[in-house]
Amino acid sequence: MRRVVEAGLLVAIAVAVLAFGGTATRFFAITQVIILILGTLHLLAGRSFSATSVRLPVIVPFLLLALVLLQTVPLPISLAHLFGVSVLDAPARSFFTLSAAPYQTVSQFLAVVTYLTAFYLVLIICADHRARKRLVLALLAIGVFEAFYGLIQYLTGWQQIFFYLKKFYLEDATGTYINRNHFAGLQEMILPFAVVFGLQHVWTLRQRIPGETGHARELLSSTEFPFLVFWIFIAAVLFAALVSSHSRMGILSALASLIAVLTLAGTSTLSAKARVAVAALFLLGLVGLAVWVGSDPAITRFETLNDQYTHPGQDRLSIWRDTLHLIRRHPVLGSGFGSFAVVYPSVQSAFLNNVVDHAHCDYLEVITELGLPGGILVFGAIFRVLGLTFRGCRKHGTGYGRAISFACLGSIVAILLHSLADFNLYIPANALIFVIILALAWSSANQGANPAAAQVS
Length: 457
Fold this sequence. Notes:
By secondary structure, the chain is mainly alpha-helical. It has one domain. 65% of the residues lie in helices and 2% in strands. The protein contains 16 helices and four strands. The strands form two sheets. A two-stranded antiparallel ribbon has the order 1-2. A two-stranded antiparallel sheet has the order 3-4. The protein starts with a helix and ends in a 12-residue tail after the last helix. The C terminus is likely disordered.
């Protein structure tokens, strides 16, 4: 059964990523059906999701589902004042809903169910260490495919997504995504895995070449060196694709996450000469690919950063200010998950001639739609996983478990930083992969815990 779950989940991820990042509803529905069927079959097979080697989070998922479901439940109009809803704004019926857009909230509810089911399925897969490795390699394969696809788009000018002719971002790499920022979001989540797997071979070299003998000559002649070069090449390709997307926040988030991972990983365990050799090889690969791809457009994008944040009514800051007004209107239970595009026009002062369907800040948008308690619930859980992963990086030795912890740490940090100025968590494929990485992190941090005694977050 575990093999079926593993294969089905990989197919679901591939469908979501390749079909415009899951933004095409009918294609993402395929992903949802596959994942929900896998969860149902697992239960029908008489196996509980608790039959894993790690603690299962239950409380946070239950509260999140309960909150979103509450937003769609018809309530008597007499209770409207208790929830701060104006009777004048309520429908001309005897009931109302907390959500300003019930249909969209139901859709988001199904999406959340899908993500949570995927989370638990990954925990099942991770009970088998070989299956966990296959899952991680599959994520890397998807990321590398997207990277090469994006580089081909950028370098050749063939701006198509399979048979679909692109209409936007015609000078940027987007892979099979519509938006360059969301393509960058995928790359920044996958990149740390390639970098950390390269570091894993460095750790292995350190064990085989201890003390002061660990200099560049032994490094270059070791059997681990070809694998190190391979992972450096993969990391360089992923980074080059990220740069060719020209996503400023994506580039900055990826660099920040890599600095955090490399600093925490302690490459200083190698001798000074070996550190210089590894660093030089890595930097040469990045510089070489950057020169090949061309860095001028990316640099130009950063040069225009000030212009895009100093025009009131035509920048993200204006959207954020408007969003704060929405949060003040619905501070406790929110306006309804997925309702931002519906409620934003009531406060809109930015891009008046355009439809603004996202806040361009995941934190503000989630708080707008779920309220302050809901926002704290969601991001509090994510940051708790991040904290556990950080601790796990210090506990593990130098093996695969440590590598997974570091890679997940880098991925989570990158997407949390990028979420400050974009809406990657509202892109189905990226949200799904992020949840899978959270599950990998949770599994690695809680490996071997007694599920019966789990007091979950």
